Amino acid sequence: MDPTAVKKRWKLAIWSIVAGMSFALLLWVVIPLARLARHLGVFEKHDMRTYNASNEANLAALYAAFMNYHETEGKFPSSAKWMDDVKTRIRANDMKPEEAMKKFVNPLLPVKKGAYGYAMNDAASEKYKGDIKDPKTPLIFDTNDVSWNAHGDPKKMLDAKAGNLAIAVDGSLVKLQSK
Fold it and tell me: Which of 18, 60, 108, 109 is the most exposed place for a label (fewest CB within 10 A)?
């Protein structure tokens, strides 16, 4: 057999194997990965939204973050560092981190850098939800204490300017009353 014909056959065989493997790779790897990425929204462009705060929406968002923390840790966070513990759980994929941080700021209080206006009830600190006897016990509440990680007794921290609204352990909004 002619050596150039043998060489041509080998080139054709190698080219056929490479083409076949490329086609197989395309069918069984690339196309399914592309479909998965499309299904997950990788190719979709979405605008980041601006968060428009309301006191009720903020309390609901903080409650959702608390429940996420509770679900993974088996208890509520320590009241002394509750904001630190839930700040990573308050984020949203369609919001910049600084927009998500607005959920920690009580819109009823005057806007001031570093002022927040929510506090955690010390009675729920590091407790399992089921261990709190009254499901209407305030968990997070409005306060005029604007410090990060504010906490204490809701009855002692009431201030009408801050709203006197709380979200209870069961997730319902409750109006706080002074006694």
Answer: 18
β pairing state of 151-152 and 118-121: parallel
Rounded CA separation 116/109 (Å): 8
Please state the three-class secondary structure of the chain as a single string: CCHHHHHHHHHHHHHHHHHHHHHHHHHHHHHHHHHHHHHCCCCCCCCCCCCCCCHHHHHHHHHHHHHHHHHHHCCCCCHHHHHHHHHHHCCCCCCCHHHHHHHHCCCCCCCCCCCCCEEEEHHHCCCCHHHCCCCCCEEEEECCCCCCCCEECCCCCCCHHHCCEEEECCCCEEECCCC
Q: Where are the domains positioned within the chain?
A: 1-45, 55-175
Q: What is the pLDDT of residues 19-60, one digit of tens each?
A: 888 888 878 887 888 888 888 777 776 677 788 889 999 999
Q: If you average pLDDT over residues 88-105, what whole number do you get?
A: 86
